[in-house]
């Protein structure tokens, strides 16, 4: 007997072996998909009616700083280095685990409501992030953001934090949490530190999540310091392998792309963040052409400014079309693959497809909406016209986290209240009390 049977939906399996089903059924038991096909020959505890909807794999957001929801809109429209160094980093120092817990809860709420079932994270107080993920039921690959700035003491304490996190949370929350090592970037970490982290990750058999060549300033700094770019430096120290997830990868030469392809590095593409921070345009069509696994991500909320992967999908498609002045350079199916199959592959999880044996991580998207009518091509609608708010039902690990627009795994209002309170720790003079928390009349 299945736990859940989803009926009457258009099943976008993303599985090349089975293809999509115009009207099919998906059965889930013990957190895994046990049937995908036209009609399930068994009973189920719970039936989900997906009439007029698309049932598809949950979206996988492969680069986030989830706790940064607290800094959404905090310091916008500033040059990237100034934004990070003068605004974001000083204010992050004021945030403790309780604030980050509240921020990550808000991030999870936002992600669930817009169809993301798994995210990869790199941030501070990551234990608190793990607790938030555990509590809400999502799946995540978490890493402690480690920076040494060439200071051996900082290197030691950072690595220790990273190691403890890996030790304590690998496989936590019934396997929904996986861990990674998160050395921040080649220009904020010393070469020695990057080598030490690399070695530790191999020892622990844990993946590595890092920012690579997000800005031209990084490229110039690296050339000055090492006489070569970040990709070459990392390659020369043996850092690259198929367990590395590199975010951004904008300022790549042809040779850099070949290195990423040969070593099997996964690239996380953040088009919205990259456009907002004017960081540049990653050569995604070329990377895909060379066989690099490219997935999609929002980046942190302070550079996006939301966590809606539907917005990211549309932006990715449009950006590369106009950049190459060739609209055939990337199509809707490819974008959907990047947001599902490729993301799951980068994180090494059995998700991203509706396939027997894979995790019961899937979403239901309501197509009975004005902006999705009429319907000729499901892929096209999902990428070019749908929004996160069209997602009605979300399952992770075979558990229903949202059903018919109702979030079941947390109290939405409470999450917003707690995050708003946590945001006060920034001491910003500009914080506006939208929930009316400081207004006694709002209690009635
Ligand atoms: C893990 C660390 O990464 C920082 N961080 C957040 N967004 C970016 C970005 N676009 N580029 C580089 N670092 C970033 C966070 O502020 C945190 O300090
Ligand atoms: Zn980032």
In CATH terms, the superfamily of the largest domain is Metal-dependent hydrolases
Query: What's the level 1 CATH class of the largest domain?
Result: Alpha Beta
User: How much helical structure, as a percent, in the residues?
Assistant: 25-40%
Summarize the main sheet: 9 strands, mixed
Class from helix and strand fractions: alpha/beta
| Fraction in beta strands | 15-25%
Which small compounds were modeled alongside the protein? 5'-deoxyadenosine, zinc ion
The domain tally reads 2
In whole angstroms, how far apart are the ends? Answer: 47 Å
In round numbers, the mean pLDDT is: 97
Q: Tell me the radius of gyration.
A: 21 Å
Q: Which residues sit in consecutive blocks of at least 5 with pLDDT less than 50?
A: none
The CATH architecture of the largest domain: Alpha-Beta Barrel
Outline type: globular
Number of strands: 17
Q: What is the name of the CATH topology of the largest domain?
A: TIM Barrel
Structure annotation, total helices: 15
Binding site for substrate: 92, 154, 184, 214, 299
Binding site for Zn(2+): 63, 65, 211, 299
Enzyme class: hydrolase
Keywords: Hydrolase, Metal-binding, Zinc
